[in-house]
Specification:
42% of the residues lie in helices and 23% in strands. The strands form five sheets. Strands 1-10-15-14-11-16 form a six-stranded antiparallel beta barrel. A four-stranded antiparallel β-sheet has the order 2-9-7-4, with no helix packed on it. Strands 6-5-3-8 form a four-stranded antiparallel β-sheet, with no helix packed on it. It has 440 residues and is an alpha+beta fold.
């Protein structure tokens, strides 16, 4: 038994580390703890990551579809895929299938109809002018006839008055026996004739006025009828003008033209007799532009942390790069600088928010558009505040969010309660996430 215990003691003494080994282990553990302590104070760049693709900031510079403007039958393509086209260049001609525009000579027929309507309007203008001249002449003639009739009435009144006085004088003389009966009869006849002539002149004056009114009414009626017919022709002329404008504009749609200068990426229709509906896509055009941007999507959790003006580091697919998220400014190779220009206020439908990022400084800081084409995949790191590495590890282990640093004055920001709070603040139990007013 004693021999067995002695053997165990010898074994234990054999594996007992020496003093040098203990000293070395202590030093390693000390330096390891010191390194961990020092690393906790190393600056760490907080970032928000996202992915997306290359695009253009101006929507008019993004790839667009060329659509069929009308229901038509396609002709032959005058270009091929990959061709560079100028703005306004004809890509294809089409045949209109609308029943209202099928006739190829429709525009000429409408022009001739318009000329006929203009001729009719001119004839009505001449008729109205002639009626106006007739009315003026009738008015002048009436004035002269009325003046003559009034003069005749005045003369007849004078004659009737004279014959009446003469008749009375002869009657007095005849009563005294100084004149014969024959003279009295002649005086009566003369007076009656004078009265009859006066009545006739008055009747002619009344008939003259009535005749003038009838002729004036007839001229006015003819003029109103001519103006009504002219108004109908004007309405028809307006309809023809509208049809001519529509036909002219419609014929412009028979040629499919390039809306912008750029490259044709794809031809979606074969053409040569193929029938398409209005607004059906025919081709895809990539406009020629130097406007570059990156369309990045980030999660809804990170969206409140990003604001326009934040700096970004970008890695484009196909471009070798080395990026350390925590050292974005000092340890990043092959990445490109950008600036957040737009942060959408509404998600894209799946809980992600879109960022539009443009080159930082000038457009020359990114690869040229011929190399960095629209649709190229992009990885992005939005640079936030710099914090100690120890704080970042502690924040991540506890699941605390990144502090929001870009809110306006008076808004609330998430902060962690600590002992540095003022005495008047209500201290929650434990280290809880609370909201406080941002310092002005």
């Amino acid at each position: 038994m004693m021999a067995k215990n002695e053997n165990k003691l010898k074994s234990r003494l054999a594996v007992t580390p020496s003093t040098q080994v203990k000293l070395l282990s202590f030093r390693v553990l000390f330096f390891l703890g010191l390194c961990i302590l020092l690393l906790s104070f190393v600056p760490w760049q907080q970032t928000v990551t996202g992915t997306g693709k290359v695009t253009s900031f101006d929507p008019t510079d993004r790839p667009q579809q060329i659509e069929a403007p009308i229901m038509s039958r396609l002709g032959r393509w005058q270009v091929a895929e990959g061709d560079f086209v100028q703005e306004g260049q004809v890509l294809m001609t089409v045949e209109d299938l609308d029943k209202d525009f099928l006739a190829p000579e429709l525009l000429g027929l409408l022009e001739r109809s318009r000329e006929a309507v203009l001729t009719g309007m001119t004839s009505y203008d001449l008729k109205v002018t002639a009626l106006e001249s007739t009315a003026i002449a009738l008015n002048q003639n009436l004035s002269a006839n009325l003046s003559a009739a009034k003069q005749n009435i005045l003369a007849g009144e004078m004659i009737a008055k004279t014959t009446d006085l003469n008749l009375k004088r002869i009657q007095i003389l005849e009563d005294k026996g100084l004149n014969s009966t024959r003279e009295l009869e002649l005086a009566k006849q003369t007076n009656q004739k004078a009265q009859a002539d006066l009545a006739k002149n008055k009747l002619e004056l009344a008939q003259l006025s009535s005749k003038y009114d009838s002729e004036v009414n007839k001229i006015s009626s003819d003029r109103a009828s001519a103006e009504a017919d002219k108004a109908k022709l004007q309405e028809k002329l307006a309809e023809l003008d509208l049809k001519i404008v529509n036909s002219t504009g419609r014929q412009r749609l028979w040629e499919i033209k390039a809306p912008r200068s750029g490259s044709l990426v794809r031809l979606l229709k074969r053409g040569a007799g193929e029938t398409v509906k209005a607004n059906e896509p025919l081709a895809v055009l990539t406009p020629q532009t130097k406007d570059q941007a990156a369309e990045i999507f980030i999660s809804d959790i990170d969206a409140p942390l990003v604001a326009p003006g934040d700096r970004v580091r970008l890695q484009f697919a196909g471009w070798p790069a080395l990026q350390f998220a925590g050292f974005s400014d000092s340890l990043s190779f092959g990445t490109f600088a950008g600036t957040v220009r737009v942060v959408d206020n509404v998600d894209s439908g799946n809980g992600n928010y879109r960022l539009l990022i443009v080159p930082e400084g000038n457009q020359q800081s990114w690869p040229r558009p011929s190399l960095l084409r629209p649709g190229t995949r992009v990885s992005a790191w939005v640079i936030l505040k710099t914090v100690p590495l120890g704080y970042e590890l502690w924040r991540r282990f506890n699941g605390f969010p990144i502090a929001i640093t870009h809110l306006d004055k008076g808004e609330t920001v998430p902060v962690l309660y600590d002992d540095s709070s003022s005495e008047g603040d209500e201290k929650p139990k434990g280290k809880e996430l609370i909201y406080k007013k941002k310092a002005k």
